[in-house]
Amino acid sequence: MRLANKGWLASMSRKRIERPHPVPLVTSPPPRPSIGLALGGGGARGLAHIVMLEAFDELGIKPKVIAGTSIGAIMGAAYASGMSGADMRAHTKYILSQRFAVMRDFFAARPFQKFRELFPGTSALLDPSAVLDVVMPKQTKADFESLEIPLKIVASDYYDQDQQIFTTGPLGVAVAASMALPAIFQPVLVDGRAMVDGGLTNPLPYDLLEGEADIIVAIDVSGTPVPDPRRPYPSAMEALFASAFLFERTIVREKLKSAQPDILIPSGTQRFQLLDILKVDEILAAAEPAKERLKTQLRRVLSVETLPQIAGPDEDAAGAARAQEVLPVLSKPKRGLLGRRKRRKQQPDA
């Protein structure tokens, strides 16, 4: 019995005792914070939105949600439908060079009266829905529910004097309402209500994205009238087309006093005027420096606010402490990038 036990022990000692290999910790790429994108109104200056959307494409970023006003609604609708910034650039240049001859003549001519017979209606020069039929890409979805990216479009209720937010239903109607600047475009009737340009109530709708994304980016394409060296005051037509943007810029300035987006990018196209759509190449070129600023800020924000990888079980206490030090702003109550986003002051309880 004793010999048998000794033999068994010897045989066991010769065998290799297998131990389970440590399973390497598999970590997934750190998640990126979500981004909400606000595209402001500004007439032809809003062609700069194309360049900004190209910046998102080049960084491989897709906004979680988009809000757009006026030309920002047009660009937002195309991008949310799945078009890339490069596709939108090519389409816009094609439209303005090939299929937009009537509109090219219209914008090049002064005065506008002789072209009234080309456009139906007595309340304005242009029918916004007819213009959209010409300029919108075929890839644009028919309704909000078909979009690849959720979209909010701002119009203004003319008689209620308040903003109207479209998030469902026919997309073309909402875009037409959002771009219907009075005197230039006819109002758009929606359920019997007269809708006009969204810029009259919310020209840069970043506030509509609050709470829907981690980082809010706003592209400001508003502008200021450019003095004409030939005279000390604007012409009647210049005053008509530029006056709306005077108080739109005032609205934006007042909004920024109470709440700010995480990233605010002026497009650099303010020297262009409302109807300068034929200067598409100049506008796109002028927006390139702003595009680089946007890319720089996006890289910085994504680097700062990217969630750290989960520490493995063998990480030492010092490593855990280092991980704790770099926990992002997203793990705390959201206050915006570097705490810059202001909050409304809390009123004391009565």
Describe the structure.
By secondary structure, the protein is an alpha/beta fold. It contains 11 helices and 8 strands. Strands 1, 2, 3, 4, 5, 6, 7 and 8 form an 8-stranded mixed sheet that branches. Helix 3 (71-80) runs antiparallel to helix 7 (171-178). It is globular and about 80 Å long. The protein starts with a helix and ends in a 25-residue tail after the last helix. The relative contact order is 0.16.
Descriptive keywords:
350 residues; 8-stranded mixed beta sheet; 11 helices; disordered C terminus
What is the fold's blueprint, element by element?
Elements: H1 2-14, E1 35-39, H2 48-59, E2 65-69, H3 71-80, H4 85-99, H5 101-108, H6 128-135, E3 151-157, E4 162-166, H7 171-178, E5 188-190, E6 193-197, E7 215-220, H8 236-258, E8 263-266, H9 280-286, H10 288-305, H11 317-325
Parallel strand pairs: 1-2, 1-7, 2-3, 7-8
Antiparallel strand pairs: 3-4, 3-6, 5-6
Helix pairs in contact: 2-4, 2-10, 3-7
